[in-house]
Specification:
- It is a single chain.
- Strand 7 and strand 8 form a beta hairpin.
- By secondary structure, this protein is of the alpha+beta class.
- The radius of gyration is 32 Å and the shape is elongated.
- It has two domains: about 70 residues, no CATH class; about 190 residues, Sortase (Sortase, Chain: A).
Length: about 325
């Protein structure tokens, strides 16, 4: 806006300055935001959804899962040490009431000095159990007992406890502590899929098999097995509740766990609602405000979704 200024002088009056607006008034204009087209709404929605899910999945597998594993191991160690001191640690597949041990119940403590590995072993080998550390396959005896014991753990995600077992050399020592004592095993070989089987164990002896995924981290392409024989005399143990034929499919190598699909669906719905709200806020409030308000929520719900998706990945990933 421009204005004309006129100055009038008089001998009997002070100078007066008159200001005249050329257009007669000041105008203020406020630009209205154009309506967001349906196509742009979809683009922003899917961009937010894919970003939240992919970033949360990456964060879950590489950072959060390791923290989760570390925290779980500390809890399991405290619990197992306590029941060992009380003499109430399990020696078989049932609890004190005679029911099946709950999945994830600590049953042994594994040490592999050459790898610097110290892990509490839980009962069962579902994806959820292996979130917390190695798991004991329930159709096999516990370490230290007569027969063959199988312990499985992840290669990369959730701490990757068995990441280095492929490098174990013949003669390397493994130590298991259970309710029945401390047992030492000696590695007799490492094999992949299709490799010759080791000699059958002698009658009345104890063998251990460690199992994890082969291939690239997070991209399993088979199995790695470490065979080890017990040094000394094994102990007896109760009969197992499962056989190789009756073991649930979710506990087999490279299986997934779909038992909590309902939780995944609910978290996906929550993520969808948040992404819709994010698009609305972007248009109504502005980009900066939308990011500030919704990013923490998208990340939190995205991590919940990623945690459920991780159950659908092969359990030795």
């Amino acid at each position: 806006m421009t204005a004309a200024v006129t100055v009038a002088r008089s001998s009997s009056a002070p100078s007066v300055v008159h200001v005249h607006a050329e257009d007669g008034r000041a105008r203020t204009a406020r630009a209205e935001l154009p309506p967001l087209s349906p196509r742009m709404q979809l683009v922003r929605f899917f961009s937010a959804f894919v970003f939240a899910l992919s970033f949360a999945m990456l964060l879950q597998l590489t950072v959060v899962s390791r923290l989760q594993h570390s925290s779980a191991q500390q809890r399991m160690f405290d619990s197992f040490r306590s029941v060992l001191a009380k003499g109430s640690a399990p020696i078989g597949p049932t609890d004190e009431q005679g029911g099946p041990l709950a999945l994830g119940t600590p049953v042994a403590y594994l040490e592999i000095p050459t790898l610097g590995l110290r892990e509490v072993v839980g009962e069962g080998t579902t994806a959820g159990v292996l979130f917390d550390g190695p798991g004991h396959r329930r159709d096999t005896v516990l370490p230290g007992q007569v027969g063959t014991s199988v312990v499985m753990a992840r290669r990369a995600a959730f701490g990757g406890p068995f990441d280095g077992i492929a490098g174990l050399k013949k003669g390397a020592r493994l130590t298991f502590t259970t309710a029945q004592g401390v047992y030492q095993y000696v590695v007799i070989g490492v094999r992949g899929d299709g490799a010759p089987l080791p000699p059958a164990p002698k009658a009345g002896s104890s063998r251990l098999v460690l199992v994890t995924a082969a291939g690239r981290p997070f991209l399993p392409s088979g199995l790695i097995r470490v065979d080890a024989d017990l040094v000394g005399q094994p102990t007896g143990g109760p009969a197992r509740l499962f056989t190789e034929d009756t073991l649930p499919g979710a506990e087999r190598p490279l299986a997934n766990d779909s038992s909590t699909m309902w939780a995944l669906v609910m978290w996906l719905q929550a993520l969808t609602v948040l992404c819709i709200g994010f698009v609305w806020a972007w248009h109504r409030w502005g980009r900066a405000q939308a990011w500030v308000v919704f990013i923490p929520l998208l990340l939190l719900v995205g991590l919940a979704v990623a945690g459920e998706v991780a159950r659908l990945l092969p359990n030795l990933t």
